[in-house]
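Q: What would this chain look like folded?
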Amino acid sequence: MNKLDLSKAITALLNGKVIVYPTDTLYGLGADIFNEDAVKKIFDIKKRPLKNPLPIAVSDFEMLEKIAFVDERSANLISSFLPGKLTLILSKKDIIPDIVTGGLEKIAVRIPDNEIALDILSRFGPITATSANIHGNKTPEFINDIAMQFSSEDVEVFLDVGRLEGQPSTIVDASGKDVVIVREGAIKKEEILDAI
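A: My prediction, written as structure tokens:
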């Protein structure tokens, strides 16, 4: 992946466009979380209900702390598993537009263990991290198959790194009094409980 592709992707994000980018699990649809029109476009092209919150990708702990509240339990999970295949649900800060979270006071955040994703995130800032598929369908493993679902008007830049077929992330809700494992994925329940 050359730098030209990444600069094109960042320019697209700056212009309120949608990109397809690799993560450590599957290909994701990325848009600027602070641009409500760009976020709305993600919902539109995925045919995803607006009440379904979108997960967010960030590059590091500092960026995560700017958009979500982190307590000691969350910090333990972050230091144990991120970057990696963990999506953490936390209480959101007021700077996050309601459209991103479906009006909820929580936000789902991850730090993908993928150099290209981390490069984009560190240079641009937080972007959406929803899988590159039509809502309810399986996410294709190849960019060509993803491109067939979306028109060039839908997605400005496709970053192709070959086949991606990672196991889905484990989703943990640490926004309340109790930590709840919402979906067990690549990280096992026992590992989460040990980290807490």
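The longest helix spans residues 3-14.
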